[in-house]
Amino acid sequence: DKMMEFFRQTDVSLVDDVLKLDPTNLTQTEAMYTFYTLISFPVQGVCRVLKHIGGHWFVHPGVPAQQVDGDYYVCMDDILVDMDKPCLFYSFGVANDWTFEDIMDSAGCEIHAHDPTVDFPAERGDNTHFYKLGLGAKTGQNMETLGNIFNKNGHSDTTIDYLKIDIEGGELTVLPELIASGALDNVNQLAMELHLTGLTATS
Question: String of b and e for 98-134 (b: at least 16 CB within 10 Å)?
């Protein structure tokens, strides 16, 4: 429609700037601030129905800072198109906050939640499956690659509607493998919480 076309046109210059960017010409500090600027202004012409789901108000003990944590944005466009089949969500990093997964389970989605640091029953809600397993760049103790996990669950050739990754810094190690292996090829949406303290501390 006209409004979405308008938003797509306004996104053109931002996308062009990203495609033309040569990070080899940037210092670490310049690259860091360029990255933060880009993720602060996401494109607006790709989603009509965007929902803010889950999370809780988190208070840092002894620190004058408060924030929402455990919340994620989900574009519902493709999910709402085919309501006859359950949407398929994969989640890595649960800790003790099930708000996101529980809401999407209640909405009729099939959830596969993973976290090697906590213990929960294998089944939860209407259609949530829990695995005491972490996401890794290679197979290891309590760790597995995304491609192998999809394969074990019979989802190698299945559309994954949403992939949530919140693994407390491990995403920086895992991301190159996700891209190189092609494990993201059938993933419609990727929500990844970035923990960049270690990188910014050295810049």
Answer: bebbbbbbebebbbbbbbbeeeeeeebeebbebbebb
Instruction: Phi first, then psi: give them for residue 145, nearest 5 degrees.
Output: -75, 160
Identify the helix (H) or strand (E) that includes residue 179. helix 171-181
Beta strand 143-144 with 134-135 is parallel
User: Minimal CA–CA distance to 167: which of 143, 189, 188, 148?
Assistant: 143
Query: How much is the CA Rg of the chain, to the nearest whole Å?
Result: 18
Distance from C-alpha of 89 to C-alpha of 17, rounded to nearest angstrom: 32
CA–CA separation, 21 and 156 (whole Å): 33
Ramachandran category for residue 125: left, alpha or beta (phi over 0 → left; psi -120 to 50 → alpha): left
pLDDT tens readout for residues 93-117: 999 999 999 999 999 999 999 999 9
CB-based contact 42:10 (threshold 8 Å): no
- The type of residue at 194 is L
Q: Please, how many CA atoms are within 13 Å of residue 65, restricted to the half-sphere of its CB?
A: 3
φ, ψ at 175 (rounded to 5°): -55, -45
* Backbone dihedral region for residue 108 (phi beyond 0: left; psi -120 to 50: alpha; all else: beta): left
Is the pLDDT confidence value at 55 over 60?
Answer: yes
Enumerate residues 6+ apart whose C-beta is below 8 A from 63.
none
